Amino acid sequence: MATKRVMLTDLAREVGVSTSTVSRALRNLSGVRPDIRVQVERAAKRHNYVPNHHARSLSMGQTNIVALATAPIAEMTPMEDALARIEALARADGMRLVRVNYQRSESGMLLNSALEQHWRGMMLFPNAPEEETRQLCVQLKGLGIPVVSFNDPHPSVADVVMLDQAHGVRLLVDHAHECGRRRVCVLGYAPELNDLPNSAKFRSLERTLQQWGMELVAKVGYPDSLSHGYPLYQAAYAAFDRALAGGLKVDMVLAANDVIALAAMNCLFNRGLRVPEDVAVSGYDDTDHARFARPALTSVRGPVDEMVELLWSMLRRRLREETGEPRAVTLLPDLVVRESTGAKRREPSPVVAADAIRV
To answer: Which of 27, 84, 173, 296 is 20 to 30 A from 336 in CA distance terms?
Structure first.
């Protein structure tokens, strides 16, 4: 039976100090009380603690490693292209990018990796509760590891590029009103994920619908598919099909992303309903799924290229030890109108919010 590897976090818990203190003690750095140093060394010896060999070989306690922390990325999504672009920018600046998984309850593992591998910095695409992400950023900052983040946490603890999700939803609802739609269904409402950044997409939904005299007929949701091990498309299709079988009558479906929108369109087709004549459907993220769908899918597109350039620019400055308060930039998505909503095609022109801080 394999023996569990002892981590820095295990030693820190036993001695009753922070992981950063354990790391400094084992690297013989200053700022650690002599008695604490002795306790850490004894605990490490007792558990046969073996640090990362790469980290042990570092004379300055620093590498050219930059971590990219994100949840698993689906194929054919804008984020997949964004990560490839970030890797190219990192190489151009002499940095080695390592991708690490970050979801709910994984901050401890992430922090341990940061300490053992001596990351220079981290780019974060959070998929965990806001407070957990905030605490992770505070801990990394205390270790001298700069963090830049997309959408979360609040810019008081890290440089952040934010996409105004509520603006994207308002664009969709305004467009639905222009197309004469009145009865709206939100598909992709996931109660388990309400504490995550993606829920911001729908925070202003009811207010905008009320403004136009439109009715939110239903929020059709299902458990988080990643946590329960089944495909997102399958979950969305099944949930929407149950709603239609139960008598749901709508003329507009606002899907949480493009994959969910495709599930809705195919479900409607299999039930003899036409898109967009009977029910209009819109997605979110403007993936290749949207362009290749038949009918082509109306979707919200974020300024991915600008987002990537801003994130890397922020991190580069921190890697050069620039000090100062965290910066925040807000980007506005735009609407790509296609046939699924029964309107004339319209190309997007993303812009930066008027109150954004340029970096």
So the answer is: 84
128: in domain = yes
The DSSP symbol for 337 reads: B
Closest CA to 219 of 231, 196, 203: 203
pTM given for the model: 0.73
Angle made by CA atoms 187, 192, 194, in degrees to the nearest 5: 75
Q: In sequence order, which residues have a C-beta less than 8 Å from that of residue 86 and are 6 or more positions away?
A: 68, 97, 123, 308, 311, 312
Burial class (CB in 10 A: 0-12, 13-18, 19+), 350: middle
Question: Residue 208's domain spans which residues?
Answer: 165-301+335-352
101 and 249 in one domain?
Answer: no
Give the burial string for 103-141 (b: 16+ CB within 10 Å, else e).
Answer: bbebbbebbbbbbbbbbbbbbbbbbbbeebbbebbebbe
Mean of the pLDDT values across residues 28-56? 75
User: Is 136 inside a domain boundary?
Assistant: yes
The CATH number assigned to the domain holding 247 equals: 3.40.50.2300
**pLDDT per residue as tens digits for the range 315-324:** 999 888 777 8
Which tens digits make up the pLDDT trace of 329-345? 999 999 999 999 997 66
